[in-house]
Specification:
By secondary structure, this protein is α+β, with helices and mostly antiparallel strands. It has helices at 7-16, 22-29, 31-36, 46-60, 65-73, 94-107, 200-211, 215-220, 239-251, 313-316, 319-330, and strands at residues 40-41, 75-82, 91-92, 112-121, 124-134, 140-151, 157-164, 227-228, 254-266, 269-280, 283-294, 306-309. Strands 1-4-5-6-7-2-3 form a 7-stranded mixed beta sheet. Strands 8-12-11-10-9 form a 5-stranded mixed beta sheet.
Length: 332
């Protein structure tokens, strides 16, 4: 998640806009945000626009002390920031969050990202990004991420959660790291049928399917939608491929206990966050999935997909192994 705060700038922009319909004025206030990313779905508030512009600006800044400070300014003083790990572990407060990004940028100084698709509903933002960096051994790393945030009235993040596959960081330094989806592939003809993006009433049933590792139920709403997710290149378009993917995921975990978190329904797509714990590699870990199911009836083919974002690292590496993997990167 990223920086840039501009209450004064927003006030100036608002003052400069003559009386106009609310939607037009709002778009003027958000001009920087709309120009910064590929697409914004929903009607962002000025606070959400402040965050979006800040996030993108951080993603493209050269690493420097100013960049670290800019990241910190994105967060409220009492913000929390999460990614999978031991239960109860959160980065708490702006000072600790700033220290954490300083450590990350020391490992990967050219870390950068670009916002591709952003969904907004109220004070909730799902920021889908394309992330890149180069390791000290010259290996280029590229991976998608979803930054899920709640912002306050000033556009500062009060709660941030990061969904991306950290295992991609270590491919070049730890070729022995298991790859659960390496053998997953399509077989047979592509599926036919219409995607059914779940509404809020259907999400409770979908949550039971995730916790019950019910592959059939999870596939039912995705018929016809190509699946993208961690560990696979391209898309899976057949029932066989998608079933194999889910089975490979569930083979790595036990005691799945996920609750429904943030939900955003916008432009025919439903974003649903599932957040809780799993047991993997003999340890309980916090874990989460963000899935996006599109249902535009073909009007927006880029949204008629089933996209999963989660971290495979806690599924294939215990905490001791994870610490060793980070040490390998820091020693490059």
């Amino acid at each position: 998640m990223a920086p840039l705060a501009a209450a004064g700038l927003l006030a100036t922009l608002v003052a400069a806009v003559p009386a106009a319909p609310a939607a037009a004025a709002e778009h003027d206030v958000c001009a920087e945000a709309y120009a910064a990313v590929d697409a914004i779905h929903g009607t962002p508030s000025p606070a959400a626009c402040t965050f979006i512009a800040a996030q993108e600006r951080f993603g493209t800044m050269p690493t420097s002390p100013e960049r670290v400070d800019a990241y910190g300014r994105l967060f409220a003083e009492d913000a929390t920031l999460w990614e999978p790990g031991p239960p109860g572990r959160l980065i708490r407060g702006r000072e600790a969050i700033t220290a954490a990004i300083s450590g990350t940028l020391a490992l990967v100084p050219d870390f950068a990202f670009h916002g591709e698709r952003v969904a907004v509903e109220g004070d909730a933002v799902m920021f889908e990004a394309d992330n890149t960096f180069t390791l000290g051994n010259g290996a280029d790393v590229r991976y998608p991420a979803v930054y899920r945030v709640q912002v306050d009235d000033d556009g500062e993040v009060v709660q941030g959660r990061r969904y991306y596959d950290r295992a991609t960081w270590f491919t070049s330094v730890a070729p022995e790291l298991p790859a659960p989806f390496a053998d997953v592939a399509d077989r047979g003809a592509p599926e036919r049928g219409a995607v059914r993006a779940p509404d809020r009433d259907a999400l409770a049933e979908r949550g039971r399917a995730w916790n019950g590792e019910d592959v059939r139920a999870l596939l039912a709403a995705s018929r016809g939608a190509p699946l993208t997710g961690p560990g696979i290149d391209g898309e899976l378009r057949t029932e066989h491929g998608k079933r194999a993917y889910l089975r490979a995921l569930f083979a790595e975990v036990e005691d799945v206990d996920l609750d429904l978190g943030q939900v955003i329904e916008v432009d025919g797509a439903t974003y649903a966050e599932w957040h809780g714990t799993v047991t993997a590699e003999g340890e309980q870990s916090t874990f989460g999935i963000i899935e996006r199911l599109g249902d535009t009836g073909g009007r927006r083919p880029e949204l008629d997909t089933w996209t999963l974002a989660f971290d495979t690292l806690p599924l294939v590496a215990d905490q001791e192994t994870t610490r060793d993997l980070y040490a390998r990167i820091s020693g490059l």
